[in-house]
Model the fold of this input.
Amino acid sequence: MDAPTIPPPPAPLEEREGAPISRIIAEVAAACPGERITLGEMSEAFGDRAFGLLILLLLLPSLLPGMATVFGMPMLLLGAQMGLGRRVPRLPAFMARQSIKRDDLLRLAGASSKWLGKIECYVRPRPGPFTTPFGDRLFGWLTVYVAIMLILPGPGTNGPPAFGNIVMALGLVEHDSKTMGWGILLTVLGCVFATGVLAVIGWMGVRAIGFVF
Done:
C-alpha cells in the first residue's frame, strides 16, 4: 500500500498576490486558531497588503450594530498613516490587542463572499492615477473621513460611506486605478449623505434645546 501523500503547506499570504480577497479573509481566519483574533495578528498576516486588506476587514464588522466605534478608531489611525505616506501600518499596543471573535469573522467572510466575488470578477491590475503615492494618500484621508462617520452616531450613516470605502480597498489591494476611481466617487457621495444626515440631526438638536430654554 502506498504511503499517503502529505499535501504541501499553504503559501504565505504575502505570496498569494492573485488570491481573491474573500478567500484570503477566510484563510486568515482559519490560520488563527484562537477563539478571538486580534488586530495585531491580522496586520502581521496580511504582509505587504496590510493597509488595504486590514481596512477592508475592519469595514465588515463595523457594519454590525454596536461595532462601528470599536473598529472605526483603528480605521482612523490606519487611514491617517496612509495619508501621511507610511508604507507599513503600525498599531499601538492597546489597538493591536483589540479582537473579534473567530466565528464572527468566518460568518462575515461567508456572508460577504458572494457579493465580494461578483465585484472581484471586474477587478484586475490596471495602472493609473490612483495606483500612485497620490492615490494611496487620497485613500488614506478618505478612510479617515469614513472612520469618523462610523464613529459618530447617526441613523443610516454607516453603510453608504463604508460601501464606497470597501470598493476603494478592493482597488487598492488589486492595484486597479479604475476600481479605485469608482470607489472614491462612491465614498465621497456616501460621506456627503452621512454628513448631511448628521448635520440635520445636529440642527434639530439645537432647535430642540432652543425650544426648551
Remarks:
- Residues 4-18 have pLDDT under 50 and may be disordered.
- The two ends are 89 Å apart (CA to CA).
